[in-house]
Amino acid sequence: MMVGLKIGSLVLVLAVLAYTVHAKSVANGAKVLCFYDGEAALKDDPLTGKVTLVDIEQALPYCTHLVYGYAGIDSKTYRLKPLNEALDLDTGRGQYRAATALKSRFPGLKVYLSVGDYYDLNEKDTSEKYLALLESDDSITAFVSSARTLLKEYDFDGLDLAWQFPQPAPKQTTDHILESKGYAYRDGFTKLIRELGEAFGTDELDLGYTIPPHVNESFFLDIEQMKDWLMYVNINAFDQNNQKRNPEQADYTAPIYEAPGRTPGNNIDAKVKLWSSAGTPIDNIIVGIPTFGRGWKLIKESGTTGVPPVRADGPSPIKSLSTYAGYYSFTEVCAILTDTKQDSMHKVHDPRFGPYAFRVPDENEANGIWLSYEDTESAANKARYVKETGLGGIAVNDLADDDYLGRCTGEKFSITRAVRQNL
């Protein structure tokens, strides 16, 4: 019995070492992870947000990795599955294969598949199956086996786990159902990452983790146990505030540092320090930045200074190409900022907290908007922060929301370009 345990322990140690050596040797220098939502190809035309794999080729010289999204989890079998088989599989339009084929034209490019994010929630915007999977060894095994098979079949280089843990609303604590589970989910997620790492190490597949904002790290994540299996940890340090979480208060969505009087921890620098202090190698930490803006509706009670936090009344009514009210791609942000048919927008750019722009409402309480966004200057500023801090790189989320038409600066994918030039 003891011999069996020793052999098992030795196999585990060798698997960790093999995977860690592979992870360290893949990329020299800063990474630029470029996320791409494949369903952007299904929109009507470029003027309504259609961005294809052919279109994003102009961005790929600035990317070290293309992260294609999104896959999901089968709620019955807990196997990894495409969310749109007709779009992604060879039996349909074959975008998985087309995405990985880009490696032949862009030497050194790695192509990952991302699972989860906000694209695989149920009709109530909850993520029960992502938690249920973690409660069963059989479910974990099914997911690991199916992930390995799918990645190998379509020639992906790795998997990005954009795992959907609950994100409580402001002033809301974790609910009693989660509390009753204790730290079982944390142990289950650690087991999932370890088993993925062991399986992937055999095939030289990479494994990364993308953490959404507002996940309770201490409750769900054993950072110390996770770190040896992960190529990177991508901190999506945006949407710290948005219209769904904060409908009555407009504020910075992606600050580098903590603004006065804000909730501690809701900024890039705090998240980086949390992960590094818990043992994550500094050069494995990736900072996720948005290529979109969030707009709130201003009202009479909002005042006239525009200085955040500002009283608001839900999302901006200005129409957008997105299905999410008040969500604007960078191209749309530029159009709003330069719209001559409306009163001009007042723009403020603070390198610590990011840019915002606002227009006070008229006497009928119409046309008022407060907009937090990313632009080329703020993206470059974050790239310099990453470089000076010695972090692993930046994740651009999403190429389909960058200026793919070149309308803002005359250069296509200008946010992605600014990131690459300043790392």
From TrEMBL:
The UniProt entry, under SMART domains, shows: Glyco_18
Under the heading PROSITE patterns, the entry gives:
GH18_2
Subcellular location(s) per record: Secreted
- Does the record's keyword annotation contain Magnesium? no
Keywords, alphabetical: Disulfide bond, Glycoprotein, Secreted, Signal
Q: Which domain of life is it from?
A: Eukaryota
Domain GH18 span(s) in chain numbering: 30-423
A single GO cellular-component term from the record reads: extracellular region
Q: Name one GO molecular function term.
A: chitinase activity
> Which GO terms fall under biological process for this protein?
carbohydrate metabolic process; chitin catabolic process
Principal localization? secreted
* Keyword Signal recorded: yes
Q: Which SUPFAM superfamilies match?
A: (Trans)glycosidases, Chitinase insertion domain
Cleavable signal peptide: 1-23
Family statement: Belongs to the glycosyl hydrolase 18 family. IDGF subfamily.
Kindly provide the name given to this protein in its UniProt entry. Answer: Putative chitinase
Which lineage is the organism of this entry classified under, starting from the top rank?
A: Eukaryota, Metazoa, Ecdysozoa, Arthropoda, Hexapoda
